[in-house]
Amino acid sequence: MRTRTHSALEVVAWVGLFGIVAATMVNAQDRDSTRPDLSGRWRLNHELSENAESELQGMQSQSGGHGPGRHMGLGGLFGGAQQTQMEEARGLVLNAAEGFVLTQDGDRIVLTDGDGRVRRLTANGRKEKTDGRDVRTRWDNQRLISETSLGSAKVTETYERSTNAQQLVVTTKMDMHGRELSVRRVYDAEGPR
């Protein structure tokens, strides 16, 4: 009698465990299926994109502009390592790729620009080292968000498909010492989708 009761409890435990595993797998599949497919070959649409240089000049004029005794550009506001980090962050915002290929396999994202430079991201919300920088990439509903920390500067890139799926909108935002610069770029899909 004791053996049958013990066996019945084992069966109930196994059935419960199987149910939990199955539910977890279904939730993971549902989560993956709701994510957009950002894959494709993308070409910058200059007409629909914001001009990063003019956005930067607007930010500089808000911080006091140029004048006697003032440093040129945002990098001059900070010294040493901070200036280097600022210039690196500025480069990430200003230097947009004319085109790139994005491949996506679940949470693994690979961006390859026209010069063959490859950037690998893992959209799991955990911090990782990418090109010597701290990067955290995650999904936020239909958007892929990648945050790069450069000392006191943070550069956030948001990738989002347009409603017609023929364009990818990439918004790059730099935040440093309370100053923020945001540039929105639109990329057109190359070839059939």
Can you put this structure into words, describing what you see?
The protein is of the alpha+beta class and 193 residues long. It folds into two domains: 1-34; 39-189, Beta Barrel (Lipocalin). Helices cover 31% and strands 38% of the residues. The chain contains three helices and ten strands, in the order αβααβββββββββ. The protein has helices spanning 2-34, 52-62, 80-94; strands at residues 40-44, 99-105, 108-113, 118-122, 127-130, 133-140, 143-150, 153-161, 167-176, 179-189. Strands 4-3-2-1-10-9-8-7-6-5 form a ten-stranded antiparallel beta sheet. Strand 9 and strand 10 (179-189) form a beta hairpin. The longest helix has 33 residues, at 2-34. The radius of gyration is 23 Å and the shape is globular.
First and last CA, distance? 64 Å
Note the main sheet.
Answer: 10 strands, antiparallel
- Quickly name the level 1 CATH class of the largest domain: Mainly Beta
Q: From N to C, what is the helix and strand string?
A: HEHHEEEEEEEEE
Tally of helical segments: 3
Could you tell me the radius of gyration in angstroms? 23 Å
Instruction: Give the overall shape, derived from the CA principal axes.
Output: globular
CATH architecture of the largest domain: Beta Barrel
Helix/sheet category: alpha+beta
Strand content: 35-45%
